[in-house]
Design goal:
The chain has 86 residues and is mostly helical. The longest helix is centred in the middle third of the chain and has 18 residues. The protein has a domain of 56 residues. One of its GO terms (biological process) is mRNA splicing, via spliceosome. This is Splicing factor 3B subunit 5-like.
């Protein structure tokens, strides 16, 4: 019975459940994009960090949130050098 619940099958379950979960075929570029997006979401959710960014950039909270949202929604695909090769 314990054979069915190996670490490998648990990881496969998590990867199917959570879209951004890394897997064996994740490239370095994809991993970095995911890490940046998760970080930006975290900044928007923690109001202390958001206040820090507003003071540091001398902008309103709405403008800082808008800038972070733009960074999250940037183009996601292969790096540009891979597009030029094909």
């Amino acid at each position: 019975m314990m054979d069915r619940y190996t670490i490998h099958s648990q990881l496969e379950h998590l990867q199917s459940k959570y879209i951004r979960m890394d897997h064996a075929n994740t490239t370095k570029w994809e991993w970095l994009v995911n890490q940046h997006r998760v970080s930006y979401c975290s900044y928007m959710g923690h109001f202390g960090l958001l206040n820090y960014f507003t003071v540091a950039e001398n902008k309103s909270k709405a403008q800082v949130c808008f800038n972070l949202m733009e960074k999250i929604l940037q183009r996601c695909g292969p790096p540009l050098d891979k597009l030029e090769e094909s």
